[in-house]
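Record 1 of the preview.
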Amino acid sequence: MAATRKPLAKYRRIVIKIGSALLVDRKTGLRKSWLDAMCADIAALKAKGVEVLVVSSGAIALGRTVLNLPTGALKLEESQATAAVGQIALARAWSESLSTDQIIAGQILLTLGDTEERRRYLNARATINQLLRLGSVPIINENDTVATTEIRYGDNDRLAARVATMVGADLLVLLSDIDGLYTAPPHVDPEARFLETIAEITPEIEAMAGGAASELSRGGMRTKIDAGKIATTAGCAMIIASGKPEHPLKAIEAGARSSWFAPSGSPVTARKTWIAGQLLPAGSIAIDAGAETALRSGKSLLPAGVRQVTGSFSRGDTIAILGSSGREIARGLAGYDADEARQIAGKKSAEIGAILGYAGRTAMVHRDDMVMTAPSGPRPEEELDDRKGKLHA
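->
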């Protein structure tokens, strides 16, 4: 059954990306009334049980106004310094506006490597999820103060999509100064048609992406389509909408024009393929029959069910999980380094803190980071021996 668009309040977890031009006026600075209205929309969603994350551009644009810098291109070190000033001002603005509804903001600064390198990815995800559990709204931005390549204003579309897939969001909302996807750039082609629903991002859809829309919002439609490919492949729907109204989320709910991108119909398969097929196991964990039953019922792997740890791996590396018969039944991302895994193997979760000296994670391999690679039931002995030989070769 094809996915259909639904009201924002019906989603479980929403990532909202906000472009620089919406937050910052290059002459007057922060658009506080707009931000206050945006925060009121967020509060309304949270009151209905929706978890909300914000990927907010604007640090450099706001830093420029705080420092009273002239218009024009900045050198890399100037952009980094400007971002250092702007990040403080931006975080304070979000914190103050959200506090009107007794919502606590938490700042997360990411680089591209934090979402691509598996160990850092797991750390970032754990921090963000903990903020959400505490009822906070994470305000996320690229860490422009340490960027090693040229900084582009508003180019947070792909970062927002990566954050959405990282935290398992079911909707990504890209707010900018354009209200959706057209068959051609509408300011160039008066015959351009607006597309309200995009069932799949095809090469034809990609060809419709235009260039940058403004000085402050340089990402343009190209990065929004790229973001859509990342998000929808992972099972996350996406909306491109104008953020110009003072209550942009309320406007979307009221039927304002926006483009909705349907999520993939088989997102789990795409993610499981990434874990099972593209990453080589760095080691293995042998588990007992009870743990195997738990894994097959969709639960995480706890230390108590681990019998043996083999190999040298780090947290976030892919490892093979061997069932009670000795054959591989699953692959997943390790929640601990190999040495720590050996120390807590066979132990109860409550004992982890005393053994390792810190309160570790409950799961040795979390169910969200695991894929079953073998069906239940016995296999011929010769096939078992062959698979075991390959694993330990």
